[in-house]
Amino acid sequence: MYHRYDAVIVGAGGAGLMAALQASRQARTAVLSKLYPTRSHTGTAQGGIGAALGNVEEDRWEWHAFDTVKGSDYLADQDAVEAMCREAVDTVYELEHMGLPFNRTRDGRIDQRRFGGHTRPDPKDPSKRIAVQRACYAADRTGHMILQTLYQQCIKQGVTFYDEFQVVDLLLNDGVCCGVVAYEIATGELHVFHAKAVLFATGGFGRMFKITSNAHSLTGDGLAIAYRRGLPLEDMEFFQFHPTGIYRMGILITEGVRGEGGVLINGKGERFMERYSPTLKDLAPRDIISRAIYTEIREGRGANGKDFVYLDVTPATVNRYFQQDGVDRRITAHDVETKLPDIADFCRTYLGVDPAKQPMPIQPTAHYGMGGIPTNVEAQVVIDSRNTPLPGFYAAGECACVSVHGANRLGTNSLVDIVVFGRRGGKKMVEYCQQADLTPLPAETDGPARAEIERIKANRATEAAGKIRATMQELMMDRVGIFRKEADLSQAVSKIRALKAEYEKVGVRDKSARFNTDLLETLELGYLLDLAEVTAFSALNRTESRGAHLREDFPDRDDANWLKHTLAYLDGENIRLDYKPVVITKYEPQARKY
Amino acid sequence: MRATIKILRFNPEVDKTSHWAEYQVDTEPNEQLLNVLHYIKWNLDGTLTLRRSCAHGICGSDAMVVNGRNRLACKVLMKYLGSSVTVEPIRGLRVIKDLVVDMEPFMAKYKSIMPYLINDEDPGSRERPQSPEERERFDDTTKCILCAACTTACPSFWANGEYVGPAAIVQAHRFIFDSRDRGAAERLAVMNEWSGVWRCRTIFNCVEACPRDINVTKAIGEVKKAILFDEV
Questions:
Q1: What residues contact B124, with CB distance under 8 A and at least 6 apart?
Q2: Is A592 helix (H, G, I), strand (E, B) or coil?
Q3: Cβ distance A80 to A97 under 8 Å?
Q4: Chain B contacts of A109, Cβ < 8 Å?
Q5: Which of A399, A584, B132, B230 has a C-alpha 20 to 30 A away from that of B73?
Q6: How many CA atoms within 13 Å lie on the side-chain side of A583?
Q7: Is there a cis peptide before residue A403, judged by omega within 30 degrees of 0?
Q8: Does the interface predicted TM-score (ipTM) exceed 0.95?
Q9: What element of type H or E holds A121?
Q10: Domain locations in chain B?
């Protein structure tokens, strides 16, 4: 079936819905999503959205920008960071005006809490930085409330949705974007969406790892589709492990737990973050804490001698450390229940642990891809080291790389990213649609997608995708995880290539047209394998340590050679790499200490 | 532990009627039912069809009837289900395939209650003030994830598909009792229609079904009271 729109948005999480609210005001817009919008992964974000409102204590967006740049280990593009942190403030107010039920302060303002790596100058000694209350929150379901609120506004505005449409191809004609091909899950029919502008907001790809906080649907479809069409992927070697996932399950336990005073405790009962980050301690950025946890485990100080540590938010422990640190705050069991209700629920459901009474067993969990489809600050996709835009193609959110997160994202900044750049992308699409003509479709539209689907349906190896997926996930976890070195990475690259060869034979038992998730999961595995290869290959190539990318064989940051972004292109069967400079405005790279 | 999983299967492309299929699995007491279903799909029978995404009870994709009760497959552990487990699609909505049902009628009911803040006053450049107490007033109903577990557990909904159902009432409650909202009268009018709150017979199935522990029947009661006494 053929459809024609001005703007097509792929993905209905925070970035996609924010873009849709903007675009649909002035351009004929359709939103395509493989999930019902309210199922999107934005809904699982917990702790808060960072914005320097200064509602609880003094704060400035410039401080937020500094923290973000430092948190990124100086790899973020500073023009993008400044735009994001400046606009974060108005965007949070806009969300409130849309109805988002933020927690409130006593005087009725949006309440804010502490989060990792977010600081302000210490009033007693401005050369030092202390944790600041910057994360605007709705209990521990901030992402849920953002997703609900944006979807509600889309209903109010009458946005057109194609729910459960899986986008399988991007249409380009002579270097201009002109639409997408989508597979209707309910019927198996292929649809061609012809459009002036397309925005990808397809989310992350954490499912390439074994232990992950990511939804099953986070398989990097948008990135892989763009990559297969010859577009580069930027900084794919930088993948964030969140320090606190539920042991063995990977389910996220928000950093907000530590924002409320929770501490990490090793097998010897020590608050070990004091040794790794004397100033911020348990509120150091995620890369530093995840590494510290693994170091404790490697050196035999895991809990019960195993590969986990404890996150302790019991009032007795928290208040003891508050007292020790000279902090006058105190928390109660009631605070744990009311400020962290979902965390309490997860712990009871999955661990049989009451976090107000017992510590939680945790381990780092694969959480967020800093890399993605390169864009400029207007969310326009750019395709080379000179930042040449691809007309008509936009990307925002986790699938994109602006880059505001550089080598390590700060907590709360993914929500800031999606709303700010989703909004920017939507606005820019409108401008573009008003001046651009519809580009004719290329000669081939749904042919390649149809051929791929038929090829998979004709293959004989049924129930084979699961084994390949599990092997990839273990491989990525073991060799392309927190600690990396050349031998592991090169082995990972060659093993992933072998898995890709095996993938060519994967078939499906389900041949039906109707709701064929056997087929969809197989397509998704293909996307993940491509991205796993790019991730491992880019990690092998970057011979330095920066942010989330730690090379044991190159333990130092190397600004002379590596203060630059990686661009990875698909070149026949191989990956070709290129680089582009980091945009530096006013924050000169310094040693990163907390 | 060894468990027998009986699943009500139906693919209209090949089946005339639904039928039970049985699978034997070796699993762990702390395993999520969702992972057991994945094990079946990935190893024994790739045709098994279900929706799922986040796998920890937030996205609301995987509501199903488990041992006779509406549950999210990702939020129930095998140790609570025993060695013989039955799994069926949620009731009252058309089955598309196996455990996947047509959510459109459910979403249409949700949309019918105007699920968005109604307030045309100029909010100014900062947030609209709201006290912690005012915010607390509708806290419970903001937790709803639209999984449909409550509505499809409701005998009044089974008997009368026109009934707007508990989930839509929960969503209406979330706005009616928000101090910033000005649309209560419009929403209460929808709630007062013959397909509205009065179809609720206070059976409490919704409360038992809700994976988010929302006190659904209480919320419905508050909406009824708001209609009767014109007070919000």
A1: none
A2: coil
A3: no
A4: 126-127, 129
A5: A399
A6: 19
A7: yes
A8: yes
A9: strand A112-122
A10: 2-101, 104-229
**If you count residue pairs, one on A and one on B, with CB atoms under 8 Å apart, how many are there?**
160
Contacts of B51 in chain A (CB under 8 A): 39
Total count of residues recorded for chain B: 232
Tell me whether residues B107 and A36 touch, CB distance under 8 A: yes
In sign, the C-alpha dihedral spanning A70, A75, A79, A82 is negative
Contact in structure between A563 and A556 (CB atoms under 8 Å): no
Question: If you classify domain B104-229 with CATH, what class do you get?
Answer: mainly alpha
Are B96 and A515 inside 8 Å of each other by CB? Answer: yes
Subunit contact B41:A512, Cβ cutoff 8 A: no
- Using DSSP, state whether A242 is helix, strand or coil: strand
Catalytic (active-site) positions of A: 286
Measured on CA atoms in the order A454, A459, A461, A467, is the torsion positive or negative?
negative
Name the token pair of A351.
């661990």
Interface contact B18, partner A, CB < 8 A: no
Asked if B107 has any chain A CB less than 8 Å from its own CB, the reply is: yes
User: What amino acid occupies position A4?
Assistant: R
Q: Which residue of B has its CA nearest to A157?
A: B116
Nearest to A203 by CA among B64, B113, B59: B59
Mutate to test the interface with A, among B72, B79, B126 (most CBs of A within 10 A): B126
Cα maximum dimension of chain A: 71
Chain A CB within 8 Å of residue B11 CB: yes
Question: Which CATH number does the domain B2-101 belong to among 3.30.2390.10, 2.60.120.10, 3.10.20.30, 3.30.1330.10?
Answer: 3.10.20.30
Torsion of CA A548, A549, A553, A555, to 10 degrees: -50
Please report residues of B whose CB lies closer than 8 A to that of A138: 142
pTM: 0.98
Q: Return the half-sphere exposure (C-beta side, CA atoms, 13 A cut-off) of residue A72.
A: 34
Chain A positions touching B97 (Cβ under 8 A) are: 512, 514-515
**Residue of chain B nearest A89, judged by CA positions:** B126
Which tokens belong to A471? 């092997």
Q: Does residue B186 contact residue B114 with C-beta atoms inside 8 Å? A: yes
Q: Which tokens in the block code for residue B93?
A: 């909505």
Picking from A102, A186, A510, the nearest residue to B46 by CB comes out as: A510
Q: What is the pLDDT along chain A (594 residues), one digit of tens a residue?
A: 999 999 999 999 999 999 999 999 999 999 999 999 999 999 999 999 999 999 999 999 999 999 999 999 999 999 999 999 999 999 999 999 999 999 999 999 999 999 999 999 999 999 899 999 999 999 999 999 999 999 999 999 999 999 999 999 999 999 999 999 999 999 999 999 999 999 999 999 999 999 999 999 999 999 999 999 999 999 999 999 999 999 999 999 999 999 999 999 999 999 999 999 999 999 999 999 999 999 999 999 999 999 999 999 999 999 999 999 999 999 999 999 999 999 999 999 999 999 999 999 999 999 999 999 999 999 999 999 999 999 999 999 999 999 999 999 999 999 999 999 999 999 999 999 999 999 999 999 999 999 999 999 999 999 899 999 999 999 999 999 999 999 999 999 999 999 999 999 999 999 999 999 999 999 999 999 999 999 999 999 999 999 999 999 999 999 999 999 999 999 999 999 999 999 999 999 999 999
Taking an 8 Å cut-off on Cβ atoms, the answer to whether B138 and A44 are in contact is no
Q: In chain B, which residues have their Cβ closer than 8 Å to the Cβ of A107?
A: 129
Sole residue written with tokens 């006290």: B131
The verdict on B28 touching A (C-beta cutoff 8 Å) is: no
